[in-house]
Amino acid sequence: MNDLVAHARQLDPYECCGFLAGTDKTVTRLYRIKNVVSLDGASEAASFDEAKMNHLSQLSPEERAEIAFIMDAQEMFQAVKDMRKHGLTLQVVYHSHPHDPARPSVTDIKIANEWEENWSRLNLSLPIYMLISLMDKARPDVRAYWIKNASVSSADVVTL
Amino acid sequence: MIKVRIPTPLRPLTKGQGEVEVTAGTIVDMIETLDTAHPGIKARLCDESGELRRFVNIYVNEEDIRFLKGKDTSLKAGDEVSIVPAIAGGR
Ligand SMILES: [Zn+2]
Q1: Tell me, what's the pLDDT at A16?
Q2: CB count in 10 Å sphere of residue A42
Q3: How far apart are CA A153 and CA A146, in angstroms?
Q4: Rounded to 10 degrees, what is the CA torsion of A8, A69, A119, B78?
Q5: Which of A22, A97, A154, B25 is 20 to 30 A away from residue A32, measured at CA?
Q6: Which domains does chain A have, with CATH numbers?
């Protein structure tokens, strides 16, 4: 949990993203993944809705990373490769909201929905989504959710 | 024939089709063939040097081509290719 907050703080005011992996529902490893939303053509390639696209197109590439993230697919591959090597499975997909509450946004839910069928196609189980809010810099808020069939529910996560 | 799943952001290039069929021997081949039928698709998938863009995943029968031979991964009839935009989100 401290590592998640550290990652979010390090990239603040930009959104960070990454994976947590482990075995038997226990997380043992964190993978920081680069946010490539500022790359040329990246936001056009992502499954953002029209409102999000319009908003992003008015921002500089740098500013885009304050309100959105796109995971570097090359680093995602490296992470999955490392998980396989160590017999770990993907448990959590996380990202930060530097200026907003730790709740999945409309965009987060839309893309989680689109990924729902990808996970099973790739023989991976549906991950928990974790959000780190830095609205209150002194007290980062970390919350976990399941996003299934377009509905969001809290996920129970125990910190050891 | 090879079945290719087209993600939503690329469907404007395929007249809205979510699935197209092509004949191709490798991923590079498939991208060229797709681009002939649906001009512009290659630029969305590859950078100027022809490398797969960092926000695009291509899977052949459930496996990331980065685990196989990348864009030189060979394809055979009946294979299913999925083009999947990277995981994303926002506030
Ligand atoms: Zn978000």
Answers
A1: 98
A2: 24
A3: 5
A4: -150
A5: A154
A6: 2-36+68-159 (3.40.140.10)
Complex ipTM value: 0.94
Could you give the domains of chain B?
2-85 (3.10.20.30)
A46/B55 touch (CB, cutoff 8 Å), yes or no: yes
Q: Which amino acid is at B55?
A: F
Say whether pLDDT at A117 is over 70.
Answer: yes
How much is the pTM? 0.94
Binary contact (B88, A73; C-beta < 8 A): no
Residue B44 and residue A63 in contact, taking contact as beta carbons nearer than 8 Å = no
SS3 readout for B5-64: ECCHHHHHHHCCCCEEEECCCEHHHHHHHHHHHCCCHHHHHECCCCCECCCEEEEECCEE
Cα separation, A140 vs A98, in Å, equals: 10
In angstroms, the CA A151 to CA A110 distance is 10
CA B81 to chain A, closest CA, distance in angstroms equals: 11
Which chain A residue has the Cα nearest residue B7? A47
